Amino acid sequence: MATITGPLSGDAKDTVVDALQGALVDLIDLSLVAKQAHWNLVGAHFRPIHLQLDELTDLARAHMDTIAERAVAIGANPDGRVATVSKSTKLPQPEGGWLEDGKVVARITDTLDGISKRMYERIRATDDADPVTQDLLIAVAQEIDKQHWMFQAQR
Amino acid sequence: MATITGPLSGDAKDTVVDALQGALVDLIDLSLVAKQAHWNLVGAHFRPIHLQLDELTDLARAHMDTIAERAVAIGANPDGRVATVSKSTKLPQPEGGWLEDGKVVARITDTLDGISKRMYERIRATDDADPVTQDLLIAVAQEIDKQHWMFQAQR
Amino acid sequence: MATITGPLSGDAKDTVVDALQGALVDLIDLSLVAKQAHWNLVGAHFRPIHLQLDELTDLARAHMDTIAERAVAIGANPDGRVATVSKSTKLPQPEGGWLEDGKVVARITDTLDGISKRMYERIRATDDADPVTQDLLIAVAQEIDKQHWMFQAQR
Amino acid sequence: MATITGPLSGDAKDTVVDALQGALVDLIDLSLVAKQAHWNLVGAHFRPIHLQLDELTDLARAHMDTIAERAVAIGANPDGRVATVSKSTKLPQPEGGWLEDGKVVARITDTLDGISKRMYERIRATDDADPVTQDLLIAVAQEIDKQHWMFQAQR
Amino acid sequence: MATITGPLSGDAKDTVVDALQGALVDLIDLSLVAKQAHWNLVGAHFRPIHLQLDELTDLARAHMDTIAERAVAIGANPDGRVATVSKSTKLPQPEGGWLEDGKVVARITDTLDGISKRMYERIRATDDADPVTQDLLIAVAQEIDKQHWMFQAQR
Amino acid sequence: MATITGPLSGDAKDTVVDALQGALVDLIDLSLVAKQAHWNLVGAHFRPIHLQLDELTDLARAHMDTIAERAVAIGANPDGRVATVSKSTKLPQPEGGWLEDGKVVARITDTLDGISKRMYERIRATDDADPVTQDLLIAVAQEIDKQHWMFQAQR
Amino acid sequence: MATITGPLSGDAKDTVVDALQGALVDLIDLSLVAKQAHWNLVGAHFRPIHLQLDELTDLARAHMDTIAERAVAIGANPDGRVATVSKSTKLPQPEGGWLEDGKVVARITDTLDGISKRMYERIRATDDADPVTQDLLIAVAQEIDKQHWMFQAQR
Amino acid sequence: MATITGPLSGDAKDTVVDALQGALVDLIDLSLVAKQAHWNLVGAHFRPIHLQLDELTDLARAHMDTIAERAVAIGANPDGRVATVSKSTKLPQPEGGWLEDGKVVARITDTLDGISKRMYERIRATDDADPVTQDLLIAVAQEIDKQHWMFQAQR
Amino acid sequence: MATITGPLSGDAKDTVVDALQGALVDLIDLSLVAKQAHWNLVGAHFRPIHLQLDELTDLARAHMDTIAERAVAIGANPDGRVATVSKSTKLPQPEGGWLEDGKVVARITDTLDGISKRMYERIRATDDADPVTQDLLIAVAQEIDKQHWMFQAQR
Amino acid sequence: MATITGPLSGDAKDTVVDALQGALVDLIDLSLVAKQAHWNLVGAHFRPIHLQLDELTDLARAHMDTIAERAVAIGANPDGRVATVSKSTKLPQPEGGWLEDGKVVARITDTLDGISKRMYERIRATDDADPVTQDLLIAVAQEIDKQHWMFQAQR
Amino acid sequence: MATITGPLSGDAKDTVVDALQGALVDLIDLSLVAKQAHWNLVGAHFRPIHLQLDELTDLARAHMDTIAERAVAIGANPDGRVATVSKSTKLPQPEGGWLEDGKVVARITDTLDGISKRMYERIRATDDADPVTQDLLIAVAQEIDKQHWMFQAQR
Amino acid sequence: MATITGPLSGDAKDTVVDALQGALVDLIDLSLVAKQAHWNLVGAHFRPIHLQLDELTDLARAHMDTIAERAVAIGANPDGRVATVSKSTKLPQPEGGWLEDGKVVARITDTLDGISKRMYERIRATDDADPVTQDLLIAVAQEIDKQHWMFQAQR
After folding, report:
1. How far apart are CA G16 and CA G75, in angstroms?
2. Cα–Cα distance between K8 and K128 in angstroms, integer?
3. How far lies F11's CA from each of F17, F120, F122, F130, G142, in Å?
4. K14 Cβ contact list (under 8 Å, min separation 6)
5. Band of the pLDDT at H155, cuts 50, 70, 90?
6. pLDDT of residue G1
7. Which of L147, L145, L125 is CA-nearest to residue L134?
8. N or C end: fewer C-beta atoms under 10 angstroms in chain G?
9. Torsions phi, psi of C41, nearest 5?
10. Which chains border D (3 or more CB–CB pairs < 8 Å)?
11. Which fold has domain B10-152?
C-alpha cells in the first residue's frame, strides 16, 4: 500500500506532527462547540451571536482542512475521528439544554483564549522544525485572536 | 431564562425529538468520517474519491443544520457535542492510518447503507407525529441513497 | 373567456382552495406587518431585529407567490386584494406609531405562532385532497416555525 | 421610549409627511393590485403581461421602502398596515375572478395614470419643504410614467 | 460486475420502478416535443411561446435526471434509450412542418394535462411503497401543473 | 399560415437541409445515449466517466439547438421527434441494464468516431452550398473530435 | 504619424476593405433602426417585440466592433461617422411617429433580408482574399439569418 | 392606432420635447464619434485613450435610452434615425483617416464642452416644465462634465 | 501645466466650491470617525454596531469621491489632505481608548445630525448656482438622514 | 466597562503596539495622499496614473483594517483619528492645487520608499515579540514594495 | 499502451501536424516573451503596456491549449517541452535586463507580425487538409492581427 | 533609462535574487511539463490526472508571477526567457510521445519532490536576508508539498 513521504523526518517531523494533530483537535471541536451554541442559544442578543457563531464554525472548518492536509503532506496521518477528538479535546464543553447569550459569550471567549495560547505554543515549537507549518499556524492564530477580541468586546 | 415552545407536545414531540437527535448524530459523524477518509486516502483512484468524499461532508454539514434547527423549532435541544456523538454514533469507525481506496469505497457504501436504513425508520416513525420533520428526513434520505448508489457503483 | 381547469374537483378542490386562500391571506398580511415593524422599530436592539424583519418579509413574499400560483393551477382564483386581506386577516395588527423592540419580538412571536397553528390545520386538511398542495404548505410551515423559534429565542 | 427626530419641523414636516404617506399607500396597493392581476390573468397575451406585472410589483416594493424610510428619517411614522391601505387607497380595485388581458392592460394604464398625477402633485407640494423627499418622489414618477407608457403602448 | 442494491425490495420496489420508468419516458419525450415546437413555431405570438417552450425543456431535463437517478438509487435500470421512449411514450406527437402558435398552445396544454394525470396516479401508487420517490414525483407534478395553467391561460 | 424563407434555394438548400437533419439526429441521440450511460454506469472508474458523460450531453444539447435553428433560418423544418430519431439514428444503441465502465468507454469512443466521420462528410457536402452552415458543422466536429480523443485516451 | 500595416495588400486588401466598410454601415444603421422601432413601437404585441429589438441592437453593436477592428487590423480606416452612414446606408428607413407592431415586424424582416443578402455577397467576395475576414462575416450572417427567421415567424 | 399620452401638455410639453430631442441627438452622435476615434486612434497614448473612448460610448448609449424613453413616456416621438442625427447634430465631426492621440483628446474635450453647455440650457429650460425630465438631464450633465474633466486633464 | 475649466464661473463657482469642500471634509472625517469607533467599540451590542459603522465608512468613502470629482469637474481643487481635514473638520472627535456602545450610538447620532444640517445649508446655497452639484448633495443628505434615523432608533 | 485582553503583555506588547500604531498612521495617510493625487492630477499620463492611485487607496484601506484589528486583538487601542494622523504622519504631504503626472509619480515613489523602510524596521522589531503581527506587516511590505516598483518603473 | 487515432491520415495528417506544432511553439514562446517584457518593463508608459502584455499572455495560453488539443485529437503528439520550444522558436528573443517601453512596443509589434505571417501560411496549408484545424488557426490569426494593430498603433 | 531600486542591497540582495531566479525557472518549467503531460496522457485514469495537471499549471503560473514581481520589486531582473529556462531547469524532462498515466504520476511526484527540496533550501537561505521573499517561498512550498502528496497518494 502506498504511503506518503514528505519534506521532514526525525524529531522535526515528530514535533510538527504533534503541533498539527493538536491544532486539528482544537479546530474540529471548535466547529462542534460553536454549532452547539448556535443551535441552543437564547437571550435578547440571540441574532448577532447566532450569526457570529456560524462565522466561527466556518473559520474552524476552513482551517481544519489546511491543517490536516499539511499533516498528510509531510507523511503523517491526521486523526479527526470522533472518539479521538472526544478523548483529546481541551475545550471546555458546553452544558446541555438552553444556553443564555451572556454565558455563551463568556464561555466562547474563554475557549478561544485557550486555543490561542496553544496555537502560540505550536508556533514556537515549529519555528525551527518547519516554517511552512508555522506559517499555517500563524494564520490560524490571527483569526482566533480576532474572534477572541470580538466575543470579548461584547461581554 | 427563555425557552422555546413549538407546534408539538406529548408523545408526538418525544417521537420527533428522538428521530431528529438520531439523524443529527448520524450526520455529524458522517461529516467527520468522510473528512477522515478524504485526508488519509491512498490508491490509484485517489482523486475522484477524494473529491467525492468532500461532497459527502458538504451534504452532511448542510443537513445537520436543518435537522438541528428543526429540533429547536419544536422546542427541544439538539445535542451535537463531541462526547454525545462519540458515545451514540452508530457509524462504523475508520481505522487509523492510511486508507486504501477500494476499502474506503466499500466502507463508505456500508456506512451510507446503515444511515439510509435508520432514516427510513425515522420517516416511518414521524409519519403521524409531524409531516414537517418527515419532509426534512425524506430530503436527507434521498441524498444519502444517491450517494450510496454512487459509492456502490464504483466497488 | 378562458378559464383554468386543474387536477382537482368537487370537495377535494373546495378543501384545497380554502387552505390556499387562508394561507395567502396569512402571508400577504405577514409581509405588511413585518414591514410596518421594520420601519417603525425603536430600541437598543434595533439593527438585528430590523434586518430579521426584512428576512420575514422576503419569506412571506416568496411563499405567497407559490401559494397563489398553486390556487390558479388547480383552477381557482386567489384573492389578494387589499380589501379581502383587510377583512379576513387573522393576524394581530400592530399599533400605530413607534414600536419598541421588546414588544415587537413578543408580538411577532405570537403572530408566527398563530400562522403556524393554522398551517398545521391546512396540512392536515389537504392530506387526502392534494399531496402537491400539502407539500407546499409543509414548506411554509417549516420556515414559519424556524422564524418563530428565532424570534422567541430573543424574548 | 426613543422617538426619532429629523431635519424638518412645523408646516414643512406636515406637508412632507402627507406626501410620503400618500405615496406609500399608492405603492403598497400597486404591489397588491399588480400581483392580483399577475395571478388571475387569462388571454392570448398572458405571458408578456404576466411578466410585466411582476416588474411592476418589484418596482412598487423597492420604492415603498425608500418612501417609508424617508418618513422615519424625518421623524414620522409611515403607516403601511392593511386596514390603513384598504381605507385610504385611491387605486381602482380589480374585480374578483379571471381577468382578461386586454382589460388588465387598460385598467393598469388607468391606475398608473392616477398614481402619476398624484406623484406630480406631491413633487410640487414638497418643492419648498424638502428637496430630498422631492428627489425620491421624482424617481418614483419617472418609473411610473415609463410603466404607464409601456402598458398604454399595448392597448 | 457490480450491481446496485437500494432500500426497497419485492412489490414495493416493482411499484416504484414502474412509476419512475413511466415518469422518465414522459419527461424525456416532453423535452423533445417542446424543442420540436420551439423550433417549428410560427404565428404572431412566436416570441413569448418560443421562450416558454424552452423553459419547459429545461424543466423536463432537470427532472428526468432526478427521476432516473432515483431509479438507480433503488437498484433499478432506468431506460431512456430512444427506441424505448419512442415505443412507450403516451404523449400526443406533434405533426411535421410548421406549427401555428394557437395550435401549439392547445396541444401543449393537452400534453401537460395528460402528464399531470399520470403523475397523480404515480403519487398515489408510491404512497405506501416509497415516500422518497413520492416526494420527487410531487415536485414534478407541481411544476407540470404550473406550466399547464400558464399554457392554458393563453388559449 | 406563415412560412419561413431564407438565403438558400434549389439544390443548395436540399444539400444543406440533409446535412442539418442528419446532424440533428446524431446530436439528439447522442444526448440520450450519453444520459443512458451516465445513469446505468458501474465500475471502478464510475465517477470521472459519469461526469464526462454529462459534459457530452451538455455539448450535444447546445449544438442540437444551433443546428436545428440553422435549419429553420434557411426555411426548412428540423425534425427532432422521438419516432424520427428512433428510425433514422445511426448510433449504436446501448444495451439495457448495468453498463461496465470499460465497455462504456469503448462504445462511446466508437459512437463519437462514427459521428465525426459523418460530420466531415457534411462539412465537405456544404462547402459550396452554404459556408454559414459549414461553419456550424466545423464547430461541432471540433468538439466531437476532442471528446473522441478523451474517451479514447482512457481505453 | 503612425499608420497601421496589416497582412493584406493590393487588390485583396481593397476587396476586403470594401466588404468590411459595407458591413460596418449595415450594422451601425441596424443598431439605430432597431432602437428607433424599440422606442416608437405601439400595438398589442408591444412587449415581446420591444425586447427583441433590443437584442437586435446588442447584436449589431457587438458585431460592428469586430468588423471595424478587423478593418484597422488590416491597415484600413473604418468610417462610422454619422454623415457617412447616412449617405451610404442601404437600409429602408423607418417613418417618423408611432410604429405599429405588425408593420415593424414586416419592415425589420425585410431589412434583415437585405442585410443577409449583402453579407453573403461579402462572404463570397472575401473567400480568396482573406479567410479571417470571411470568418467574421460568416458569424454575422449566421446571427442575422437567425433574427430574420424569428421576426419572419411572427408575421 | 394607439398613441401615447403622458403627464404633460401644451407649452410645457413642447419645451420638454425640444430638450429631450436635442439631448438624444447629442448622445447618439457622441456614441458614434467616440467609436470612430476608438477605432482610428494612433499614438503613444493609444491604449488608455482607446479604453476611455469606449467608456464614453457606453455612457452615451445608456443615457440615450433613458432620454428617448422619457420622450415616449410624455407622449412624444423621439427621432434617432441616422438622417435626423446627421442633419441636426451639433458635434464637430472627426476627420477621416488616422487620428492622433493628442488631437483626439483636444477634440473630444471640445465636443464634451459643447454638449455640457447645451445640457445646462436644457436643465434651465425644463425647470418649470418638468422636474422629472430635468432630473434625467442633470444626471447626463454630471457624467458629461466628469468625462470632460478627465479628457481635459490629459491635454 | 494643464488646468481644468468647467461649466461655472464667478460667484456661482465660489459658492459651489465652498459647498463641495465643506462636504468633502465632513465625509473624509466621517470615514475616519466611524472606523475609530468600529475598532475601539466595546459593549453588549458590539456586533450590530461594529457592522453598521462599516456601512457608514463605505457610505462616506463612496460619496467623498463623487463630491471631490465634482469639484475637479468644475475646475476647482478639492483638498482632502490630512492637515486640512484636521484643521477644518466640524465633527465632534471621539475620545481615545475604549468606546462604550451606548455612547457611540449617541455620539454618532449627534455627528450625523450635524452633517445633515450642514448638507441642507449646502443644498440651499447651491440651488441657483448649480443644479448638478445640488443633486449630488441631495443624494448625500438622503443617506446621512437614513443613517441618522437608524443610529437614533437604537439609543 | 469591558476592556480587551490578548496574547501579549509587557515589553513584547509595547513593541508590537508601537509597530502597529506606526503602520496604521502610514496606511491611513497613504489612503488620503493617494486620493488627493487621484483627484488633482493633470498631464498626458492622467488616466493610467489616476487608476493606479485608486488601487493604492484600496490597498491602504484594506491593510489599515487588518493592522488596526490586530492592535485591538492584543488589547491595545488603535488611534486613527484625524488629529493623531495629522500630527504623527511621516509622509511627505502633497502641495495644494493641480499636480503634474511626472511629479506625482516621483513623489509617490518616494512616499512608498519611506513606508517600505519603516515597515522593514517594524518587521525586525516584532520578530521576537509576535510572529502573528510580523506576518501581517510582511504582507503589507510585500504590496508596498510592489507598488513602489510600479510607480518607479514609470518615472 | 493506448494511442489515439483521429479523422486524418497520410499527407493531410502530416501537413496539419506541422501546422499545429509550428503554431504551438509560436504561442508558447509568445506567452514567455510577453511575460518577460511584462516583468522587466520600464518607461513612462509602463502601466498600460504592462497590462496589455498580460492580455497577450492570456491570449497565447488560451490558444496554445486549443492548438495542442487539436493535435492530440488527430492522433499526433504536441511537443511543448522547453528544449523543443527553445530550439525551434522563430520569435526574436528579448534582451536581458530592463526593457524600455518604446522598444518593447516596437519589438512586440515585429514579433506579432512574424507570427501573423506564419499563421497565414498555416491557414493556406491546411485549407484542403483539414477545415477544422484551419478554423482554429483563423481564430488565432484574428486575435494576433488585432494585438498587432494595437501595439503598432502606439509606436 | 529608469532602473528599479528596492529595499535590499549587497549580499542579502544577491542571496535573494538567486533564490527568486531559481524558483522562477522551477515554476516556468513546471507549467510546461504539466501541460506536456496534460496533452499527451493516456491510460484508464486519464480524466482525473488530466484535470489535476491543469491545476498544477494554474498553480505554477500564479506563483511564477509573484516570484518574478518580487525580483523586480527588489531591483533585479527576472529571466524567464525560453533559452534561460531550457539551460538552467533542474526538472526531469518528459519523453516525447504518449505518456502512460502511471508513469506520469510517478514522474510528476519525483518532479515535485525535487522542487520542494529546492524551495526549502531557498526558504533557509532567505531567512536572514529578506522575510518578505521568504514568506512568498513558504507559500509556494506549501502548495508544492500538497500537490506532491496528492500525486504520490495515487501511485
Report:
1. 11
2. 12
3. 10, 20, 15, 11, 20
4. none
5. confident
6. 65
7. L125
8. N
9. -70, 140
10. C, E, G, H, I
11. Ferritin (1.20.1260)
Question: CB A87: neighbour CB atoms within 10 A?
Answer: 12
If DSSP codes are grouped into helix, strand and coil, which group holds residue C154?
A: coil
G6 vs G24: CA distance, rounded Å: 19
Angle, alpha carbons F53-F56-F59 (nearest 5°): 155
ipTM, interface predicted TM-score of the complex: 0.97
F110, F151, F152, F154: best to mutate for the K interface, most K CBs within 10 A: F152
Q: How far apart are the C-alpha atoms of I1 and E17, rounded to whole Å?
A: 83
- Indicate the angle between helix axes C131-152 and C46-73, nearest 10 degrees: 170
Q: Does any CB of chain D come closer than 8 Å to the CB of residue C28?
A: yes
Q: Which residues contact C4 (CB under 8 A, 6 or more apart)?
A: C72, C73, C75, D42, D98, E149, E152, E153
Question: Is H touching D (3+ C-beta pairs, cut-off 8 A)?
Answer: yes
Residue K84 half-sphere exposure toward CB, CA atoms < 13 A: 21
What are the tens digits of pLDDT across the range A47-69?
999 999 999 999 999 999 999 99
The answer to whether the Cβ–Cβ distance between I132 and H152 falls below 8 Å is: no
The answer to whether D63 and C35 are in contact (CB under 8 A) is: no
Please give the Cα distance from H6 to H14 (Å, whole number).
Answer: 13
Q: How many CB atoms lie within 10 A of CB E132?
A: 28
What is the per-residue pLDDT across L99-154, written as a single tens digit (0 to 9) for each? 999 999 999 999 999 999 999 999 999 999 999 999 999 999 999 999 999 999 99
Cβ atoms of H135 and D141 within 8 Å: the answer is: no
Interface test with D, best of H1, H132, H136, H142 (most D CBs within 10 A): H132
Find the helix packing angle between F46-73 and L46-73, rounded to 10°.
90
Query: G73 to chain H: nearest residue by CA?
Result: H39
Average pLDDT over residues F59-86: 98
I99 to chain J: closest CA residue: J1
- Closest partner residue to C132 (CB to CB) among E142, E152, E154 is E142
* Residue A138 CA neighbour count, 13 Å, CB half: 24
Round to whole Å and give the CA distance between H62 and F100. Answer: 56
Q: Within L41-152, where are the H helices? A: 46-73, 82-88, 101-125, 131-152
Q: Is residue H134 less than 8 Å (CB to CB) from chain I?
A: yes
Cell 437567425, residue located? G146
Q: Is C106 left (phi over 0), alpha (psi -120 to 50) or beta?
A: alpha
Residues E103-108: contacts with CB within 8 Å, 24+ apart? E104/E37, E104/E41, E104/E43, E104/E49, E104/E53, E105/E45, E105/E49, E105/E151, E105/E154, E105/E155, E106/E155, E107/E37, E108/E33, E108/E34, E108/E37, E108/E53, E108/E56, E108/E151
Distance, CA of J34 to CA of J26 (rounded, Å): 12
Sequence-separated (6 or more) residues with CB below 8 Å from residue H33: G81, H91, H93, H94, H108, H111
Nine-digit cell string for B150:
454512487
Q: Rounded CA gap, J24 and D72, in Å?
A: 38
Residue I41 Cα distances to A153, A155, C108, I57, I102, angstroms: 7, 12, 30, 15, 10
pLDDT score of I155: 84
Q: pTM above 0.95? A: yes
The dihedrals phi and psi of G74, each to the nearest 5 degrees, come to: -100, 10
Residues 6+ apart with CB under 8 A from B55: B147
Around Cβ D12, how many Cβ atoms within 10 Å?
A: 16
Domain boundaries along the sequence of chain K: 10-152
The per-residue DSSP string of F111-131 comes to HHHHHHHHHHHHHHHTTTT-H
Give CA separation, B59 vs B80, B142, I155, in Å: 17, 11, 43
Work out the end-to-end distance of chain E between its first and last CA atoms, rounded to an integer number of angstroms: 53
Cα(L3)–Cα(J155) distance, integer angstroms: 9
